[in-house]
Known about the structure:
- By secondary structure, the protein is mostly helical.
- The protein has one domain.
- The chain has helices at about 1-20, 25-45, 50-55, 60-80, 85-95, 95-105, 115-130, 140-160, 170-185, 195-220, 225-230, 235-245, 255-280.
- α2 runs antiparallel to α9 (about 170-185), α4 packs antiparallel against α8 (about 140-160) and α6 (about 95-105) packs antiparallel against α11.
- The radius of gyration is 18 Å and the shape is globular.
- The two termini are about 20 Å apart.
- Its main location: membrane.
- Belongs to the drug/metabolite transporter (DMT) superfamily. 10 TMS drug/metabolite exporter (DME) (TC 2.A.7.3) family.
- Keywords: Membrane, Transmembrane, Transmembrane helix.
Amino acid sequence: MALGISAYTLFSVHDAIIKTIIHVLPAVQILFVRSIVIVCLCMIFGRSTMFARLWASSNRGMILGRGLLTLAAWVMYYSAGRELQLAEMTTLYYFAPVLTTVLAVIFLKERLTLARIGAASIGFFGVVVAADPTGFTLSLPVMLVLLAALSWSIAMIFMRTISRSDSAIVQVFGQNVIHAVAMGTVSLPFWQGMGIGEIAFCIAAGLVGGLAQFILVESAKLVPASVLGTVEYGALIWAFVFGFLFWNEVPMSNVYVGAALVIAAGMMLAWTEHRSRREQMRR
């Protein structure tokens, strides 16, 4: 769970980096450069065996599917970033943990405990409170973020399944090869010149995003998808912090109430899962 929290914290930093340049460069171009950086990192650490290990995987089809799902999720999510505040984007996107919990029960046959149901419910309610839904309209950017949440939830189920047999670096490498090829092709007609600042931000997004992806896959090997999805709520707090620090977005009082509920949900889940594991070890 600590790995999951670390991964989603890094994803929040990653999102803030991309939102900084999303008004300057097309989302597809940013994702292409970021994916190239991550592929290069995997090649450095995995060396020349990366392509052979990916090809030898029995989960090639599932890795391809997960790559396309996460690609669709990120393109929709960051495209909406032109119109929505970071806090709004993150809040809407956190419908994903609820979907992940439901899908994990259906497809992975994970046990739906009362603690997991309660944590997901409290966390989502906290997100709703923080979002102040009366201020939202069902616009195209909002729909894009909700569709991104659905795509991410399905990708999480794929990741949990793949993690049973493939290493984290193979998953990260395969996913970003798919992203690089797809985004490299799509971004050509929209390509814009980049200054040193834009290049630096794209490289930073690749470094932070690559590390976050690796840690997330490692955490998926250790905890159920339903638990990992609920841990995702903790990163909501960073969205409001970064929004205030970098874009002067001042949270309303409802944000603090919602954040408190989110933290409570995470602490409750961590305590119950820890107690459950201790009881299993005693047996």
